[in-house]
Every structure is written in C-alpha cells, then in structure tokens.
Please model this.
Amino acid sequence: MGITLQASGVIFFVGDNITEEASKIIQDWFKQPVVSLYYEGPLELKPKIEEYFYKRGYLIGIGEPIYIFIKKHEGKIAWKIIYKDYKVDNFLSLSYSIDDLFSILDKTFKKFNLPKKSIAYDPEEEKYYIAENQIKPFLIKRKEKIYKVKIGEDISYLKEGFYNFNGNTVYVGKDITLDSTSNFIKDIYVYGKYKYNGEKIIFEDKTIDFPEVPLYIDKQRVISSHYWYENQLIENSEVVLDVFKKMALLSDGSLVDLSKTWKYQLPDTPFDWYLENEKLALAFVNGDVLVFDIRKKRILYTQKFEKLLGVGLKDFLYVNSNGKLLKINIISKKMESLGNIKGDFIIDGENVKFVNGIVIRPRYKGVWYDGTFYHFKNLKVENYLNLLYDDKAYYIFTLDGTWRLIK
Model:
C-alpha cells in the first residue's frame, strides 16, 4: 500500500510517492505525543479507548505506557488506570457509562491540537488522497462520491448521504433505483428511519455490523433470530421467534421483556401465535391453545384441541382444529364452527377470510403463500423474508429489497 515511514512505533503511510505535500503532512504528525496503550477489557470498548486518545491529539505506538483495565457486569462498569505514578480505580463506586473513565483521563492527558490534514486511501479506487479534519495520520476511507438515483423515469445524481424520497429516508451509498408507484426500495431493508444493507444497520448517526436480517430495531438494540445487539453483538442462546410489545418470544417457549428483567415460561414451544392489542393467542404442538394477557401477565384461557393447525384472535378466539375453523368466546367458552377449511385462514380487519395457501407465521402479520407468490392485503411479492411495521407503515422485506406500504 505504498511508501511507509516509522517513528516511535507509529507507521505513517505516505502514498505511492513522497510528494512535498505528503512530506509536510507527515512532519506535522511527527510532532504529536505518543503513548503505549496496554488495554485489558471487552473488545468492543477498545476502539472507544483508542479513539479517545486520538481525539486528544495522541498517537498510539511506543511512548509513555498507560494501562487501562475494564470489566462489565449487568450494565455496570469497573475500571482501573495506571499511568506513571498515578493509579486510580472506581471499584467501590461503579460507573454506568464509559464517559466517567474519560472524565478522569481528561484530568491527566492534556489535549493537543490535531494537524489539519491526513493521508487517506480509497480501497475502491485504489488511490491515495488528502483528507482534512481527521484524528489519525492515515485512514482507509472511500472518497465522497456522486451516485445515480433513479425514481421512476427520473434520474438524479446526488452526494453520498441520507435522503428522503416519497416519505422514505434512505442512505445513498451506491446507485439505487426507487419505484415511485409501488414504493419499492431496491437492495436495502428499510424500517422507519433505520436501514439494513445486508451487512450493517444504518442509523442516522452511526452504523453497526450485523449478520442477519433484523426482527426488531430501536435506538438501543437490534434483534434477529440468532443475534442480539445491545452495546455489543451476542449470539442468542435461544432462537428469537418474534418481537412485539417490547417483548421477545423465544424458541424455548418463554416470553422475556427486551430489558431482560422479566421472564414468563410458557408450557411448550408455540408453532403459531396471534397478537391482538394486549392479548396473545398461542398454539402448541401438543394441541394446547392459550390466551395470555401481556399487560397483566396472566393466562385468560387454555384448552386442548385435536389436529390443531393454527389460531387467530380478535373479539373472539379462532382455532383451526380437525379441519374446521372454530369461533370461541374465551370468557363463556361458548364455541361455534364457521365451516370446513381446505386451505388456511387470515384475519383482515374485522373479517375472517379463507385463503388457498399457507399462512406465514406469525399469523397476525397477515402474509400467506399460494405456492408462487406471497400475499399481503392486495400486494403480491416474491422472495418474502419478513414483515415489520410501525405506526405509519408496513415494511415487507424480500431478497430484492423493501416494500413500504403506508397504513
């Protein structure tokens, strides 16, 4: 990657040629103080510690040694600093934020002005260029580019960044095509103001690496079937089946709130479930049907059925059992048959409809498959992955991108 120089354990990349400008940039960075960082703690916090020193005007290489120890437990942070003759820790008064550690470091490490220019390498173009207002002497960063955005038949050329099209906020980081009539966003998963490009969750102020299409996103956490991100990425010990009402339904048949302070163990793993306001109907492989009050955290109804294939819930409980659709009052337990089912059923608004296909679980999302297309309301889609929704819209994830339907 071009010519390099080394001083105090810091490697400086000059570029393909030592130009007068590159030489001056490196000379400016040579003047910055250097520390040796000895870090012991969670890997996800190490970049924040390094960034702290870079922003204060220090380079990390061979210099004055500083030892930083960090441990985390249930949201609390213990830390220790050893620098020259200075030793300090918070073992008897734990922190909830790493910022407390930075406040202590501020008292010891004077802030230095940073050089105005750095040398950057664009891996896509395989070229070096001069970058301004950076915290390191060298960085790998794509140079800001212009991308083609096609909306219907209209074509625009825009700088990389966040843009709002037809009520959708998207990140323009490559050439994209938007269908203005169907509101289909190609090659990216959109959920409100959050985006997922197959590798990263894109927030308005940051991005995080994430290996799977999410089931749930908010400012604090991202949850998928196999992964849970909350300050760090963790692989789930149990598969997450669904997320609703600030709760997660797990494959071991448990309900947990997203802060993981409360857990309710259901009798078995459900194969179908239906959410209606604060009530959750569940169907289990052993034939049990259960209606659970999420707010009051108690069971409202339970009964066993033969050849159980699914449940739905509105003002009444609907159960697909023995080839018939049963309508049940969960208070009086009065039951009536709505007829034989050849395919499956969905609940659309206040109406129960039979469909010639298979309903995709969870049933309350209203998506069904006819063997060729997936159906949601009047929309037919291919390669369906999941449906998320907020107060304003439905977001249907497919292998090709996102359908956005205004409520």
Observations:
- The CA atoms of residues 68 and 81 lie 5 Å apart.
- Helices lie at 20-30, 46-55, 99-108.
- The first helix runs from residue 20 to 30.
- The chain has a mean pLDDT of 88.
